[in-house]
Each structure stands twice: as C-alpha cells, then as structure tokens.
Write a structure and sequence with these properties.
- The chain is built from nine helices and nine strands.
- The protein is α/β, with parallel strands linked by helices and about 280 residues long.
- It has one domain: 3-Layer(aba) Sandwich (Rossmann fold).
Amino acid sequence: MGRRWLVTGCSSGLGQALATAAARAGDELAVTARKTADLEELAAAWPGRITPVPLELRDADSCEAAVRTALDRLGGIDVLVNNAGVGLFGAVEEVSDAELRDQLETLVVGPWRLTRLVLPLMRAQGHGHVVNVSSVAGRIAFPGLAAYIAGKHALEGMSQALAAEAAPHGIKVTVLEPGMFATRYGTAMTEAARHVPAYDVTNREMLEGARGLAENPETGRPEDFAARVLEIVGSEAPTPLRIPVGNDAYGYLDLAAAAAGEELEAARELVHGPPPAV
C-alpha cells in the first residue's frame, strides 16, 4: 500500500513539488493551502491521489477540520509534513509584538497544533512519521530575519523533544533544513511596518538577496528537495533527527558548527582562563 500524507503549504514551491513526487510514486495525499483554488491544478493533475484541503494554520478550528478531512479521505495519516510558512523581514527593533506573534503562530504554534492532532492517530496505528521543514536558519542567524529565525529555532527544539517522546510509539521525527531553493519565499516575504534606517547597513543587502532567490541560478530546485524527502521517508534505516537539504546547506552549517566551537572555547577561556601552556 502507498503511504498517506498530510502536507501543508502546497500551493507552490517545496510543498507543491513534494506533493507531485509523492503522488507520482503512488501515494495518496491531503494537501493544504489557505485557498483551495491555488491547489486546483495540482489536484487535477493527480485525480484520486490528491485531495485539496483549505487550511489557515493560525486558526485552531481550521487545523482540526483539515485533519478530519485527511482522515476521512485517506483512512489514516502515515506522514505529516509541516511545510507551510512565510517569512517576516525586520530588525529586532522594527518588529512589533503583533507581527512577532503572527510569525510564530505560523512557524511554531500551527505546526505544533497539527502535530498534536495527528499523534493520537499515529499512536493508534503503531507507526507514523512527522517531518518538520525548518531551514538552515534553524541553526544559524541572518540579519533582518530574527522573527523567522526564532520560529525555526523553536520548531527544531520542539522536534528534538518530540523525537524522544514519540519513538517508543513507532513514530519517527525528522527535521529538514533546506538551504536556498528557488521558491516564492523571498518574493512573498513581508516587511515589518516600522522601518529604522539605522539598520539598513546590515539588513538591506540581505533583503535584496532574499527577494532574488527564485531567479538565482545557483539556488536548488524544489524537485530535488522532493526527491530527497521521499528517500528519507522511505528509508527503513535509522536517520538523523536533523537533515540538511541542498549542497549549500552543508556549507552554511559547517561554518555554523565551526563558529559554535570557537564561541564555546572563547567562553570557556573567559570563565576558566586560558588553557595551560604545553
């Protein structure tokens, strides 16, 4: 039997590519977007394989309805992919409380809520796989993206705890950390309403780079991301909790790991003094 998926954020980009690849592999999917009109072409391409479902991640009733629909149409959920998300650009000083809450509702609270709703189904089945799409920003930071980065760091922390809790019930947890892919992320990203020009020197170049991601020939293709996800979900071997996706992701995280090691040594020397001379 094919797998049964609930995948969020499928109107374009990584989610759409993943839905297409899974349907082509013979699986059945409930795919979501805020407006099901954005899913019509995808559903028409895979009749009987793909069920479009409206979902507003920030609304509890909408999340519950989406899970009920997926269960009714598919008979169960083997794989939950928390992929939906949108970025907010702004320096810490620029981002308001309301803007921060909205970003965290989408990146943390919504995925947490869906996971909480799906876990009892997976426990009853005795198996399941929760896939949380984070980012290299889940382990490193970029200027101007503090709210987005806070959300991805929180998602990764939740996933780490969930992995320990869910393993005895036959449920796997994977955090995907994509690098730069050609999606609408940069063009769809909103900007904080308040603008403090003092931060332009550190932040504006970052914003321009993000806006041009889809047109950058060096960014990854969503189809490659989808292929990697199918490999991971289909693997019966133990897999790491966190899996970077995309060649550039490994480069970013290598630099982050080296910087973290240097920071730890600097802190140790500050507190305990320099190491003894050899």
